C-alpha cells in the first residue's frame, strides 16, 4: 500500500471526513516529500474508499508518519489499524423480541448521546456491540483481569465517540478511540445503514511496546 499521498488527495480526505474549516491542519505536523506529496499521516481515508466499493466490514492497517516528539507513548513512525462494520436494520435488531417497533432512523435532534438521524435504541445497541467487541479484543491482547474504562470524547467524523483506557502501573493509559460514524459520511458512500467505526489509534503499538518491554 502506498505510504505517500498527493496533497490534493489529502485535501479531499479532510473534506470526505467532515473536518470543519475551524480545525487547523498544521504543515509542521506532517512529513513532506516535495511540494506535491506527503507521507501518509493516517489510514482513515481508506475507510471511505472501501465503503464506497461496497464492503460492509473491513480492517485497514498501515504505517503512518507524524512529527510527534519521542517519549514512552509517542513515536514519529507507527502502525495504525482501523475497522468498520455497517449494520442493516435486520442485522442490528435480529435478537430483539419487539423488532417491529424498532427503527434505525428518525428526524430528531442531536444530543450528547446520538446524532439527529439515529434513534437512541439503535445507537445503544451499536454502542454495546462496539464496546463489548473491543473490550474482548484488548483483554485477549493484554490478559485477563485488565481494568478498563470508557471515556466520552470528540472526533470530527464520529458521534458519539469514545476512548478506551486501561489501568497500567496505577495510571490510566489510553489505547484506542472509536465511535458511530457520522451518517452524512455513510450516505456519501451510498449506504443506508447505521454504521459503527472502530479504530485503534496511534497509541496502540506504542502502548503494547510500553507494557511488554
TrEMBL record:
Pfam families assigned: tRNA-synt_2d
Domain (Phenylalanyl-tRNA synthetase): residue spans on this chain: 30-85, 129-188
Top-level lineage group: Eukaryota
Protein keywords: Aminoacyl-tRNA synthetase, ATP-binding, Ligase, Nucleotide-binding, Protein biosynthesis
UniProt keyword annotation of Repeat present: no
Entry keyword Oxidoreductase: no
InterPro entries found in the cross-reference section: aa-tRNA-synth_II/BPL/LPL, Phenylalanyl-tRNA_Synthase
Signal peptide feature range: none
Record-given protein name: Phenylalanyl-tRNA synthetase domain-containing protein
Gene source species: Staurois parvus
UniProt lineage: Eukaryota, Metazoa, Chordata, Craniata, Vertebrata
Amino acid at each position: 500500500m502506498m505510504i505517500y499521498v498527493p496533497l490534493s488527495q489529502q485535501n479531499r480526505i479532510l473534506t470526505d471526513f467532515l473536518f470543519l474549516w475551524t480545525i487547523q491542519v498544521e504543515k509542521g505536523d506532517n512529513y513532506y516529500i516535495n511540494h506535491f506529496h506527503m507521507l501518509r499521516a493516517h489510514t482513515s481515508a481508506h475507510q471511505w474508499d472501501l465503503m464506497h466499493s461496497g464492503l460492509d466490514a473491513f480492517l485497514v492497517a498501515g504505517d503512518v508518519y507524524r512529527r510527534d516528539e519521542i517519549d514512552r507513548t509517542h513515536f514519529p513512525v507507527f502502525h495504525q489499524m482501523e475497522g468498520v462494520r455497517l449494520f442493516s436494520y435486520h442485522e442490528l435488531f435480529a435478537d430483539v423480541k419487539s423488532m417491529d417497533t424498532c427503527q434505525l432512523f428518525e428526524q430528531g435532534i442531536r444530543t450528547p448521546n446520538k446524532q439527529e438521524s439515529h434513534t437512541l435504541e439503535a445507537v445503544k445497541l451499536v454502542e454495546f456491540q462496539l464496546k463489548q467487541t473491543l473490550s474482548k479484543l484488548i483483554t485477549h491482547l493484554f490478559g485477563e483481569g485488565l481494568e478498563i474504562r470508557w471515556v466520552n470524547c470528540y472526533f470530527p467524523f464520529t458521534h458519539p465517540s469514545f476512548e478506551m483506557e486501561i489501568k497500567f502501573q496505577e495510571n490510566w493509559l489510553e489505547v484506542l478511540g472509536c465511535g458511530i460514524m457520522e451518517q452524512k459520511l455513510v450516505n456519501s458512500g451510498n449506504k443506508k445503514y447505521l454504521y459503527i467505526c472502530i479504530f485503534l489509534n496511534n497509541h496502540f503499538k506504542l502502548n503494547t511496546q510500553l507494557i511488554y518491554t
